[in-house]
From TrEMBL:
Domain annotation Fe/B12 periplasmic-binding: ranges: 2-253
Gene name linked to the record: btuF
Protein name listed in UniProt: Vitamin B12-binding protein
GO biological process, one term: cellular response to iron ion
Family in the record: Belongs to the bacterial solute-binding protein 8 family.
Species of provenance: Oceanobacillus picturae
């Protein structure tokens, strides 16, 4: 079977299933596992080159709607009449379902069910540890600085926060992604600021930019120097690697 993945999280789900050997091409941002960097690239995940995808003669294209703008890719797949599967998870449970779905799609239904169960079991083990923490610090996750975007209640990072024994200050907003303002963040006064700018490497995210924002010097997180530059790929991609990010978050907190 020949598979093309056009989203990093899909590539990582296939890796979790142990079947990256089926990949014949990936999007430009797929970088895990490292071996996929040797595969043909079909363009950035928001602007896939369908000619390149078609040239690889895939039996299945793993598509996504996890980022606004990816609808264009799906339209291109339909235009080229390429077989595809769309994944669009918002929660850890959704990711578990996608593991099983991909397993079935590649003819490995039993493997998909087993890996789904293993993923859910790992979450349960980590959940019990998180629930033991009575004093839950408040986290502000920054996906993008201007305009300011942060995960809301219907997003995996709210779950990750809770599993780590903390709480997302924007869990009050019943959306996956919430646009807010610097003043509102300041008013919610988080204990920790987690910088995970989408698509930006850690070395380009500078905490001093956070500290210079008007009035933010009065926030607990800034006063206590609890500004954390985190690995974007472990927090912004809806894949099983979120649990690796969770473990690192526990250490940070």
């Amino acid at each position: 079977m020949r598979i093309v993945s056009i989203c990093p999280s899909n590539t990582e789900i296939l890796d979790y299933l142990g079947r990256t050997d089926l990949l014949v091409g990936v999007d430009d941002f797929s970088d895990w596992p490292h071996a996929v960097s040797e595969l043909p690239k079909v363009g950035p995940d928001l602007s896939i080159d369908m000619d390149k995808v078609a040239a690889l003669e895939p039996d299945l294209v793993l598509a996504s709607l996890s980022v606004p703008g990816m609808e264009k890719n799906v339209g291109g797949l339909e235009e080229y009449q390429l077989p595809y599967l769309i994944l669009n998870p918002n929660s850890l449970h959704d990711i578990a379902e996608d593991i099983e779905t991909v397993g079935h799609a590649i003819g490995e239904s039993q493997l998909g069910m087993e890996k789904k169960a293993a993923f859910l079991d790992e979450i349960d083990q980590l959940r019990h540890k998180g629930e033991a923490d009575a004093d839950r610090p408040k986290l502000y996750w920054e996906w993008w600085p201007k305009p300011v975007f942060t995960p809301g209640a219907v997003n995996w990072l709210t779950e990750i926060s809770e599993l780590a024994g903390a709480q997302n200050i924007y869990a009050t907003e019943q959306v996956a992604s919430f646009q807010t303002e610097w003043e509102d963040v300041k008013a919610r006064n988080p204990d920790h600021i987690c910088m995970v700018w989408v698509g930006i490497k850690e070395e380009k995210m500078r905490p001093e930019l956070i500290m210079q924002r008007p009035g933010w010097d009065m926030m607990s997180a800034v006063q206590n120097r609890n500004i954390h530059v985190l690995e974007e790929s472990l927090y912004c991609r809806p894949s099983p690697r979120l649990l690796e990010g969770l473990r690192k978050l526990v250490e940070v907190l």
